[in-house]
Amino acid sequence: FRSQLGVKSSDDLVYTRKLLTTTYSCVNNNSSGTSVPSGASTSMSFTPKIGDDIVCTFANNKLIVSPEISLWKYVRNVNKSGEVFSSSGTNGFSGDNLQYCIAYSNIGGDAPNFKITDLFPENTTNHGNLIFVTPAPDFTALSSSPVAQTVPSPGTYQSGFFSSNGKTGPGVELSLGTLAAGNVAAPTTGAICFDAEIR
Asked: CB burial class (10 A; 0-12, 13-18, 19+) of residue 32?
């Protein structure tokens, strides 16, 4: 048996986050008075003169920021002592227990309705051991199960019967609600893991 890796988020929504940028515009009703600025900032300065009649207007403008989500899938054969997780697959025999982990990372805006659905690989059956963890560990250096954490409310992580990538069958599904924004220096990360036994 050779494990097959590959996963996609089952949610096809275009994720966006609304931020604010600030612009300002100033008008001097005394045409012979002080020249006044316009621009994009939360502050500005000028020195008015006697006789100036200056009105400045600040506006908050919505800025749309899309999330940038990456997914990686890893597997290790639990029956092989000391085997670390691999993103390229593993080998096993009937009765062996494979542990799969899917890590995610967001370096963009908030991702509402974030969901990951993954079906159990062919020729395997559900072996339980559902694990959620955040932030995601370095799986390429890990040869044991990560320590399980509670999925933050209102999120859920469960096994069941799902549809994913045009197929329907037994699998797992993580539903987080909104996945928070992140950036390159501080991405928002996490992972789910599950076990599958080779038939």
From this structure: exposed
DSSP summary character for residue 13: -
Q: Tokens 């670390």 appear where?
A: 84
Q: What is the pLDDT of residues 13-63, one digit of tens each?
A: 344 444 567 889 999 999 888 888 888 887 888 888 999 999 999 888 767
Residues 197, 96 contacting (CB under 8 angstroms): yes
- Look at the block and give the residue holding tokens 């509670």: 150
* Strand-strand pairing, 131-133 and 124-126: unpaired
Q: Residue 176: left if φ>0, alpha if ψ -120 to 50, beta else—which one?
A: alpha
Nearest C-alpha neighbor of 58 from the set 78, 72, 38: 38
In this prediction the pTM is 0.72
